[in-house]
Amino acid sequence: SKILGQLASTFVKDKWGTEELDTLPTNKLRFTFVIKRCQVELLKNWVTTKLMEENESEKLRISTFVVTCAYMWVCLNKLQENETKHPSLSGDSHIVFSADCRHHLKLPPTYFGNCIEPRFATAKKTELVKEKGVIVAAKAIGRQVMELEEVGALREAEKWLSKHKEILKPGTHFISIAASPKFGVYEIDFGWGRPRKTEVAHIGSLGSISMAESREEESGVEFGLALSQEELHSFNDAFHRGLQQLQ
After folding, report:
1. How high is the mean pLDDT of the chain?
2. For residue 34, which of 68, 63, 70, 74 has the smallest C-alpha distance?
3. Mind listing the pLDDT tens digit for each residue in 209-224?
4. 65 or 107, higher pLDDT
5. Rounded to whole angstroms, how far apart are CA atoms 142 and 150?
6. What is the pLDDT of residue 158?
7. Mind listing the GO molecular function terms for this protein (predicted)?
8. Domain spans in the chain, listed from the N-terminal domain onward
9. How many CB atoms lie within 10 A of CB 157?
């Protein structure tokens, strides 16, 4: 279509060179963190209760995706706070996730393919590490979800690459979410049974995390991260302590 042709032209002109790509660290190990179904419900209830206490009139989507991604965003900011390499918490933190646009477009019934777009949410680092950081994060992510549903898909698509470049500048804190619990990766069976474990291959740096449904129980969520041994201790503490405080 004409629109897709214009976007393709924009992306080609704005492409990155290989000299701009960072080398992935070699001291990282992969870890999986699971948020159980009961913990997902605790997060939803806690966020809903706090919003009611604040007399929040804004319509927000409080879904499993929103609250669990918000929680991981907060935990990763707390990790940064504890890392001596990144002592500054001034400025913004960004989270990027992909949204399925197919049901927002007039596609033919025979369409067999993908159509996703990046969604960008931003919050102050100092707000994310406070007691109500998950609320701040959930609001930011929830607004992006609602905006897609209310305004439609592919708006300002010509700015996607420039936005990515902006948040990838040195010193900028960002998190990128890959995949989704809706993919049903643990239900795939090629004839030799369900997968015991799934991994997203390109997760290799701090800030890039994968997301999938839990293999062990319905409505649970698992996240894959690449952390050093030192980062693991700080993140593990923030992750489990935060969930315990909800109970």
Report:
1. 87
2. 68
3. 999 999 999 999 999 9
4. 65
5. 12
6. 87
7. acyltransferase activity, transferring groups other than amino-acyl groups
8. 29-100+115-184+193-246
9. 16
8 Å CB contact between 76 and 207: yes
Per-residue model confidence as pLDDT tens digits over 7-30: 656 655 665 554 555 566 778 899
Q: Which residue has the higher pLDDT, 38 or 162?
A: 38
What is the average per-residue pLDDT within 137-141? 97
CATH top class, domain 29-100+115-184+193-246 = alpha beta
Whether 47 contacts 41, CB under 8 Å: no
Asked if residues 58 and 226 have their Cβ atoms less than 8 Å apart, the reply is: no
Burial 76-109 (b: 16+ CB within 10 A, else e): bbbbbbbeeeeeebeeebbbbbebebeebeeeee
**Would you list the DSSP string of 93-157?**
EEEEEEEE-GGGS---TT--S--EEEEEEEEEHHHHTSTTHHHHHHHHHHHHHHHHHHH-SSTTG
Torsion of CA 232, 233, 238, 242, to 10 degrees: 100
Alpha-carbon distance of 53 to 243, in angstroms, equals 20
Residue type, 135: I
Helix (H, G, I), strand (E, B) or coil at 193: coil
